[in-house]
Amino acid sequence: MRGHRVAVIPGDGIGLEVIEAGKQVLEALAKKSGDFQFEFEDFDWCSQRYLEKGEYIPEGGLERLSKFDAIYFGAVGSQDVPDHVSLWELRLAICQGFDQYANVRPARVLPGVNSRLKGADEIDWVIVRENSEGEYSGNGGRVHQGFPDEVGTEVSVFTRKGLERIHRFAFNLAQSRPRKKLTLVTKSNAQRHGMVLWDEVFFEVAKAFPEVTIDRELVDAVTTRMVLKPETMDVIVATNLHADIISDLAAALSGSLGIAPTANLNPEGTFPSMFEPIHGSAFDIAGQGIANPVGSFWTAAMMLEHLGEKTAAECLMAAIERLTASGLQTQDLGGTATTRDVTQAICSDIESQ
Ligand code: NAI
Ligand code: MG
């Protein structure tokens, strides 16, 4: 029996709801397979804890987390804590602390899901987001706070090392896919230093991947291409900020923010990788039991694949597709099903296979 130790951090808002649903599905898969099992450990690192104790992660927390095979994360964000505090103190502390530099975001229209975009069934993208530096390096500061001459800077940091490794990762991924295409997204017309370095390193790395067809697009133009010519793209590599934005667009074009998954990978395996749906804590629907858990299921499939459970990952993806095709959908997709309805349906489907 193979065992997988998974740290579970549901976080805030609908994170709690969708991660609980995802755990049930993972348990159903493990039971069905009989070949592997999960040892889940729940961590109460959330905004409530911050409000009570002044910290999201307790002392020694990252050290404890580093012992797990993977991290299954919900979302962080509360109306009672400034967003830059919650994000930096929890999610970014883990991503950056564990050097999870490759953020991988597949986008595809699942069967039965209605996209408002004509031709959306041709969407089959993986967005690779640089996840360790760039615009989210945290480099900057504020002076003369509260005075009329106040200044705030937010300085993007791009390093050759950081760029080489993310481009290499994106090329390897593109090479492993049937279409073998990679689109470089940047803004190197207006931003003439770091962004130009992005481009240069991309073309240097490209030399080692002659089978991959490459092209480049400025980030503003790529938003129109995603809408007007979705079939022309396969893998897309972009900076921390740019990929953050275009992956929400990709999720909406594929039907809803509620279905999109993410893996925050430390490809060398020096630290555990973290798996999370791309959405946030969704203040508007939290606590109502109506969040779409499909993003956390698809995320769980990515985690299974990472843990070496390829068959279970395929089995889960197939179950997700049967679920969406069945028309049982939550309100974000135009249906009336609850989180629990959808979770029960997929668990019984897995059991009955
Ligand atoms: P959000 O993703 O929480 O919500 C945006 C919209 O999408 C809302 O209308 C929400 O109801 C809907 N939505 C999102 N996930 C859904 C699901 N599974 N089912 C149905 N509808 C869904 O983004 P927002 O409103 O910008 O951020 C809310 C909080 O979450 C903020 O504190 C923000 O900082 C945080 N956040 C955290 C992230 C993380 O932990 N990875 C990612 C994005 C935001
Ligand atoms: Mg985002």
Automatic annotation (TrEMBL):
InterPro entries: ICDH/IPMDH (IPR050501), IsoCit/isopropylmalate_DH_CS (IPR019818), IsoPropMal-DH-like_dom (IPR024084), TTC_DH (IPR011829). It comes from the Bacteria. One of its GO terms (molecular function) is NAD binding. Its EC number is 1.1.1.83. Keywords: Manganese, Metal-binding, NAD, Oxidoreductase. Belongs to the isocitrate and isopropylmalate dehydrogenases family. This is D-malate dehydrogenase (decarboxylating). It comes from Billgrantia endophytica.
